[in-house]
């Protein structure tokens, strides 16, 4: 089966197209990476070219040595992925040292992986260690309402978590570990990758102030769903603030009751 017909590619095309339709990926905004399973890595072996040079990632991700990632391309438009796969996405392999990558498939005509590769791979590295390899997806989107809130709320993860939990009862169940916030930084390098991955140690959602949001998840559906849930909650908060603010809300005790009945553990730091 050709790579383009493989299930994980079909899923990636559907997920990226859905994300485009959501309005989270204007122009070349946002980027998505997926770590292939062992089976998928074996399935692609007859179709890839390993005989290509390695290039530096710019950060070190030792525990991802020899892993394969499906990645969106730098400067490429998410909306075009379902039209022309090989021009817009590629598969990269990480070397033995975790310091270099090579493009083994796709990203034709000299295209390069996303400019946010350091933030993606460092976040993958943290999640790989933390979830015993369960998390496979990092998604960076320019989710409109979350970005808007970074101009209004204090840039504090506890405040973002509590405010967004209050906007939809499912939120503490979907993201019980809360949200981290990176202050405005220059995107695309090792420094913002370090700051993002540090917050990924505690959270599955990390907001980049005045820029966008990173979500980590086990598979493409769950990661899309996480982005969708937190952005929906942000949309409700934008509407509530636009209507003059909350007049009643979910209380700390309500959250404790919810956590008990849904069997999720949520930190008291969010329940003051
Ligand atoms: O243009 O989203 O953060 C891609 C980006 C950079
Ligand atoms: Zn971005």
The CATH architecture assignment turns out to be 3-Layer(aba) Sandwich
Number of helices: 10
Counting copies of identical and different chains, the oligomeric state is single chain
Low-pLDDT residue spans: none
User: Which fold name corresponds to the CATH topology?
Assistant: L-fuculose-1-phosphate Aldolase
Average pLDDT confidence is: 98
Give the number of domains: 1
Shape field: elongated
- In total, how many beta strands? 9
Main sheet overview: 9 strands, mixed
Strand order in space, largest sheet: 2-5-4-3-1-6-9-8-7
The level of helicity is 25-40%
Q: In CATH, what is the class?
A: Alpha Beta
Which value, in Å, is the CA radius of gyration?
A: 19 Å
The hetero molecules present are: Dihydroxyacetone, zinc ion
The arrangement of helices and strands along the chain is HEHEEHEEHEHHHEHEEHH
Beta percentage is 15-25%
| Structural class category | alpha+beta
Task: Please explain how this structure is put together.
- The structure is a single chain.
- The protein has 272 residues and is α+β, with helices and mostly antiparallel strands.
- The chain has one domain: Class II aldolase/adducin N-terminal domain (L-fuculose-1-phosphate Aldolase, 3-Layer(aba) Sandwich), CATH 3.40.225.10.
- 39% of the residues lie in helices and 16% in strands.
- The chain contains ten helices and nine strands.
- A nine-stranded mixed sheet has the order 2-5-4-3-1-6-9-8-7, with helices on both faces.
- Helix 4 (117-130) runs parallel beside helix 8 (190-200) and helix 6 (157-166) crosses helix 9.
- The chain is elongated and about 60 Å long.
- It starts with 6 loop residues before the first helix and ends in a 10-residue tail after the last helix.
- The relative contact order is 0.14.
- The model has no long low-confidence stretch (mean pLDDT 98).
- Zinc ion is lined by residues 29-30, 140, 142, 187, 211-212.
